[in-house]
Specification:
It is a single chain. By secondary structure, this protein is an alpha/beta fold. The protein is about 35% helix and about 25% strand.
Length: about 260
Amino acid sequence: MSEPLLAVSGLTKTFRNGGRHVLAVDDIGFELPAGQTLGIVGASGSGKSTLARLLMRLIPADSGSIRFHGQDWLALSGARLRRARADIQMVFQDPLSAFNPRATVESVLNDPLRIHEIVGKAERPARIGELLDKVGLAMSLRGRSVLALSGGQRQRLALARALATRPKLLILDEAVSALDLSIRRQILELLVALQREDGVSYLFIGHDLAVVRAIAHRVTVMEAGRIVESGETEGIIARPQTSVTKALIAAVPQLITGTESRPG
């Protein structure tokens, strides 16, 4: 049996809040095979975003292990970590806050190509064009300011930037929750298509089980920093075992029933 792309074990993080300690992530463990999507769901404050920040090495873990693509992810530092970061990218809920407000579409995509030395300077314009085409953005947008883009266009641009380094894993933290329903569905269908084409794995973090059902092969439910339920997506939705999962299902008036954007 092949090693999973991502294997997390015993991951723990405590924050100090005034005079008390808050256990934000408590002994978390899961695996993600290459080419698949794991949905991480839970209510606000359940620890989902803290988990994402730990996986991205934006904050240090108190304890536990993360193995990514056969490496001890927490042991990497310096130049080795900078090189390895190309393989894990993240897309946030509000891409505008992650962009330089003075940046253009072209400069947003040029930066990761330059920083990670993906292609030479002469090849970058062609690669930028390929990335725009991959996420369904018009070439005419190259010189446009990110401030002039619509919300859906900005999220597509954020996805293109994440894909620029040819990552093995994308962490999507509430990446479609701020979009209207029609744009949300387009982005989900795009994510599923990209996974089929390129074999990229997703860790899809959200609170809406209808959205997660459209993209995730498996689902892990979190509450108060802990995993309370985990399994294949359809099984979790059809036969929830915990009150947390039942409440998340009850919060969705009607789960997605179409198959257009379902993962393969």
